């Protein structure tokens, strides 16, 4: 049973889509409208088991309000930022009749991703560069839904906006995610920074009310600062299509409509009794400008937009801080130079003393070297003399060896002759006959 009071806590916009005051209203409205679309986007996310996709939890209600009307259509979706490719798969499931789902990423690794769905394509390139859109246009040149989930850097978001909004169909929606990064200095943001992505979208909301302030020939328009700051072209003809700028936590949603559909229209009245202010009846069917009698002076914009003034002031402050820092730095450098000179002088004196000590050592070493060289020369002379003596001794030895060899050879010859004569004597008859006499003589000699 749906609580009617809770169900009435949302209001319906001009396009029939509800504007929610809280998450409960979204859930109740989804229950009431369950037959009008195929299923809540969050359910597709929860059921997803393919490539990884990550989103902040509060995004789903905001996405559901603007995407549900496209679910049964042959939509064309462009998402800047692919990463692992999971969100492309979810869009393909959530929009079963989608004609094209294109992901754009600067990382070449995303080009290697493969998808089961034939309607998913990936284009590699910088979303702020025209060349990238030439490749995108070759696949599809207009889109019903465009999501910027890229680098989240303020400059990249703002630089890509003219390219994507130009390709957004009338009746389409542009969604920029993760805008909390617009408060981070590292991402080109800051709460009071005039050139952040949030500052850009805040200014973009002025174009929802374009008819109430614009007049031809205005030089300083709300977007002129951003055009000059980032080198963009944001013609009034493009921005006149801004129908709605919706903001939720970290998300900005911009809806595009034909300029004629973005007008306030005439003032309408119903009823006949105007007892308090009867003059109001004169305003039937008048325009806003006619109603309050706007003059040209009322529409005159200041010479500089608040963003330009803030930016110039910011840089003036930075310049003043820089000058102050520069003076302090110069003083610090002077002190460092004085200290450095003192250190240099001390080092130079120590170096000179070291040089003097080294000179004494070198002189002593030179003297020692001369002594060593003299000793070496004497040693060379001794060596040469010894070598001569050794050579002479070697010669004498060789000669002596030759003489000794000859003597040995002569003695050997004498020995052989003597041995032969002895053997002849011993073999003779007289030697054998006289053997007993020799023994007797030996005996007598020993007995004496």
TrEMBL record:
InterPro entries: SAM-dependent_MTases_sf. It comes from the Bacteria. The keyword Coiled coil applies. Keywords: Coiled coil. Residues 319-346, 376-428 form a coiled coil. The keyword Coiled coil applies. This is Methyltransferase domain-containing protein.
